[in-house]
Specification:
This protein is mostly helical. It is 33% helix and 6% strand. It has a two-stranded antiparallel sheet. The longest helix has 17 residues, at 27-43. The protein is elongated and about 55 Å long.
Length: 88
């Protein structure tokens, strides 16, 4: 399996599809192989998001309060309710 330093286990059929698309010259063929790979990975539930870091920031001339630094030692914007835009 490619990238075995970051993962364990292997799916020989998926590895074979990946190798096929890597050498395919036709755009449509590569696209079809990648769609098939994605479909198989989705069916097998091979991804489990345990933590998703999605942080909102407000920057720019229209921002009145970006809410950065309102909570001591917190390095991102929070609480979100305090983010405000300047009134027009």
């Amino acid at each position: 399996m490619l990238g075995t330093g970051l993962a364990y286990g292997s799916s020989p059929d998926l590895d074979a599809l990946f190798q096929q698309q890597a050498v395919a010259r036709d755009y449509r063929t590569r696209e079809a192989l990648l769609h098939r790979l994605q479909s198989l990975m989705h069916e097998r539930v091979m991804h489990a998001p345990l933590l998703e870091r999605a942080v909102l920031y407000g920057v720019g001339p229209r921002v009145d309060e970006p809410a950065i630094g309102l909570i001591p030692l917190l390095t991102f914007a929070a609480p979100y309710e305090e983010m405000r835009l300047k009134r027009p």
